[in-house]
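Entry type: protein chain
Record version: 2
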Amino acid sequence: MKRLTVLYDETCALCVRCRDWLLTQEAYVELELLACGSEEAERRYDWVPWLGEELVVVSDEGDVWAGAAAFLLCLWALVEWRPWSYRLSGPTFAPLAERFFHALSSSRRTIAAWFAPDDCPGGSCRVRYGGGHYR
């Protein structure tokens, strides 16, 4: 495996911040971060049932991970965080990691409001991009 495509929700401020953080990390494999609502994502991954509902990671070999498994795979791809991916996926911490990711994912709109409270009217987050534009 040489490349992973991370499909994230570009309408969620928390997801965009996580994307930005991933872009700053040194990785063992190439990471492509692709907005799940983009035409490119729909063209390439319309067959993925969780697209837009969960964090999704697709390998260059066609394997797909969603939710907590996708989160752990993102950690596995990173130089500094690979040891944590092994710890969190082991029998002792896997149930905790699963519950943590589920809680985070199901509350991401609320958490995102902490980052951009004025940009999330009615729970529909919009993130300010360069030039003051919203998406």
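Comment: Confidence is low (pLDDT under 50) at residues 123-135.
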